[in-house]
Amino acid sequence: MAHIDYFFSTLSPYTYLAGNRLEELAAAHGASVTYKPIDIIALFPRTGGTPPKDRAPGRVAYRLQDLRRAAARASMPINLKPAHFPTNAAPSSYAIIAAQLSGGDVGPLVQAFLRAVWAEEKDIAADDVVRECLGNCGFDPTLADSGLLTGAETYAGNLEEAVNRGVFGSPFYITDGDERFWGHDRLDDLDAHLAGRL
Q: Is the pTM of this model over 0.90?
């Protein structure tokens, strides 16, 4: 069975725009997925990147145009300047880590947090939003209050693993054999790789 390590940030608009395509192609190919939320703001300076707020004006303007076009292509709503961005991604990331350890389908939970930021004007650092996303996706809302130490350790470990494995953005997919795919617009390539065409 093929396996995908999925490195992502719950703050990333491009991860939001990937929707559920990863889960669909993983199911089509019988591949398993390990969800690895990362601190993207800490990742950038360690891998040659620049946080959006520190980018040159031309790059900032292009990013907004690109996000608008990508959202239109995907028929997904997006607020290009969300009320709660950036915010602390740790609470949502800890919840995803706890949910994955408890079993169940984590994909919809990841998408719920991303949708909360980019389409619903919610603060994913807020306890009530974290509990709401957990409950709406079939998880015990009290997972938000449990395993905080494990969540913090795993979240920090995911960042170190990401740096060591060449991850520099979100979403980032690594398959068996160390094939790497960066960006929601590389899911077709990931699909082709899993099918043996790339």
A: yes
Residues paired with 32 in a beta bridge: 3
pLDDT tens-digit readout, 118-142: 999 999 999 999 999 999 999 999 9
Helix (H, G, I), strand (E, B) or coil at 155: helix
By DSSP bridging, strand 3-8 and strand 32-37 are: parallel
Cα 18 to Cα 91: distance, rounded to the nearest angstrom:
21
Domains of the chain: 3-194 (3.40.30.10)
Structure tokens at 121: 């004007």
Tens digit of pLDDT for each residue in 142-161?
A: 988 887 889 999 999 999 99
Taking CA atoms, 139 is separated from 41, 73, 134, 161, in Å, by 28, 31, 5, 27
- For residues 141 and 128, give the distance between their C-alpha atoms in angstroms, rounded to a whole number: 9
Task: Quote the tokens at residue 46.
Answer: 């360690």
Q: In the chain, where does DSSP find H-type helix?
A: 13-17, 21-29, 40-46, 57-74, 90-102, 107-118, 127-136, 148-164, 187-194
Helix/strand/coil (H, E, C) string of 9-59?
CCCCHHHHHCCCHHHHHHHHHCCEEEEEECCHHHHHHHCCCCCHHHCCHHH
